Amino acid sequence: MNGDRALKKMRALYRAPGAQQERMDALLGRIKERLPELKALLAEFEDRWGKEDGVYRFYHQSFKVFHLKEPTRRAFKLIEEIGGEQDPPCEWYCQIVKGGCEHGFNKTTNAEWLAQTRPILEAFWHTKYLLTMMAKYAKQLDSAPQCLPSGWAAVLYLFELR
Predict the structure, then answer these.
(1) Which of 6, 43, 59, 138 is the most exposed place for a label (fewest CB within 10 A)?
(2) Phi-psi sector, 139: left (phi>0), alpha (psi -120 to 50), beta
(3) How far is residue 19 CA from its own chain's centroid?
């Protein structure tokens, strides 16, 4: 669990046992509604740029590694919309995305290459993983299961429902 907000949310859910299942089912429903958008974004993460070129650009020390930030930002926005006010993304994930997307290429970037660009890859990969899990389980599940597959459990952690 990460943060006071998550702890408060979990305590409230434990006080109302049926609420947890309702919230997880509602989340799954919102994910299913947005599945076409999730799949389109995921395709960007899987194309040549996302799978191959972005990481190469990191090792090549090319400013083009910064291009990974844009699909990450768009995916983060979609994730926030899916969660809504009731189930926003967890604080850790928000920090990871912020750390990877807040800075642009500047005069200190080359001298601080690892410190400034590794967070971009971290945000990109976390986001890709979470998009993949949401798309996978939106296709596989009819309702939120009690016995959780690890990928679905990760999605629940994303929205602080686990």
Answers:
(1) 59
(2) alpha
(3) 24
Residue with tokens 């976390």: 126
For residue 116, CA distances in Å to 55, 63, 69, 140 come to 14, 11, 12, 38
* Per-residue pLDDT in tens (0 to 9) along the chain, 162 residues: 456 666 666 666 566 667 889 999 999 999 999 999 999 999 999 887 777 898 999 999 999 999 999 999 999 999 999 999 999 999 999 999 999 999 999 999 999 999 999 999 999 999 999 999 999 999 999 999 888 899 999 999 999 998
Q: Which amino acid is at 82?
A: I
Start-end of H helices in 16-112: 17-33, 35-46, 48, 54-60, 69-83, 91-101
Residue appearing with tokens 């995921």: 42
> Considering the entire predicted model, what is its pTM?
0.87
* 8-state DSSP, 88: P
